[in-house]
Amino acid sequence: MPSVLLYGSYGFVGNLMAREAIDRIEDGDADFDLLLAGRNGDRLREQVDDLERPGYRFALEDPDTVAEALERAEADCVLNCAGPFSNTAGPLVEGCVRTGTDYVDITGEIPVIESIADRDADGADAGVTLLPAAAFSAVPMDCLAAHLVDRLPEATTLAMGVDSLRPPSIGTVRTLIEGFEDGGAVYRDGRLEHVPTAWRTRRIDFGRGERPAVTMPTGDVSTAHYTTGVPNVAVYALMPQPARLALKSHRYLAPLLEPTPVREGLKWFAGLVREGPSSRSRKRGSTYVWGEARVEDDGGEFGGDESGEPTERVVSRLQTPDAYVVTVEAALAATERVLAGDAEDGFQTPAGAFGPEFVLALEGVEGFFDESKPESAPPEVDVSAP
């Protein structure tokens, strides 16, 4: 039976992933063994005792150490849940390439996805799949992007967006702090381009009335481009007015937050925050995902400039469970399909590997709603000023 090494298994999301995987294994719904792993020996030992699964403690500073640990564990696939992924993905990918081990992670960090894309040839030569962003941070919008381009193959621009107000986990907060200096990002004319934080605001109907959303540098920017080949991609997120103002102020505060001691202090402070949403909150939560594909003429870049109108335009939507629920479902589903040989070797995106219907196979996901809205969407609630 193949084995999956879950790195960062004792973090908030990693622990959710471990428990769900074990439940599936014990119910006979998952055909793999689970190995727990991480760098914190005390937390790992506590989890190993609690879950009664093998554990492997190893740090990531030395590529030889990582490769030796993967060989010792005899892992067939690494599922990386340890953020910030800018610190963990590179060493684990290198270890996987050296040992012929498949790699899956749940990053939403654009630089990480881009760096793994750069290792496409290395993965292909080693006969391993390198599949980042198998989480809510990319899967729904990546699959929606592929669906939109199936509907409009001539599309030159994709605008994607998400309406999900949920408290982030400590790992997510630390990841955001780590990327303070990067600002925003879009794909323009086939090239990744950095733009100011909250660069553009647009009113979007995610399925329950128009609301203001701002551009965000989420992993979907990269995955949607690689999956579809569309040269212009921007991703928006619903933001109340106070949050929009805070994001825009980042442009001026970034130099103060850039020094490493300041970032490390903020990440330590983040550790004092509650780990993540409760089980009840996760069960009740839902998110709304919107996407638009356009064939642009002159102007109208990213659908947010009224100076021009598209020659063609299609819109589709998804409704999903809470982001944490989708992350666990998507990552485990992607890992099982990688183990089954359903993904090609080298760098892959979720929809590129498994097609746009991948998201619809996840429990609780509804869609695609083409030019329509989810019937179960609650009525519009005014959460911010225009």
Automatic annotation (TrEMBL):
Q: Which parts of the chain are coiled coil?
A: none
| Database matches in InterPro entries | NAD(P)-bd_dom_sf, Sacchrp_dh_NADP-bd
Location of the Saccharopine dehydrogenase NADP binding domain: 4-129
Which Pfam families does the record cross-reference, listed alphabetically?
A: Sacchrp_dh_NADP
What top-level branch of life does the organism fall under?
Archaea
PANTHER family listed in its UniProt record = SACCHAROPINE DEHYDROGENASE
The protein's name: Saccharopine dehydrogenase
| Gene source species | Halopiger xanaduensis (strain DSM 18323 / JCM 14033 / SH-6)
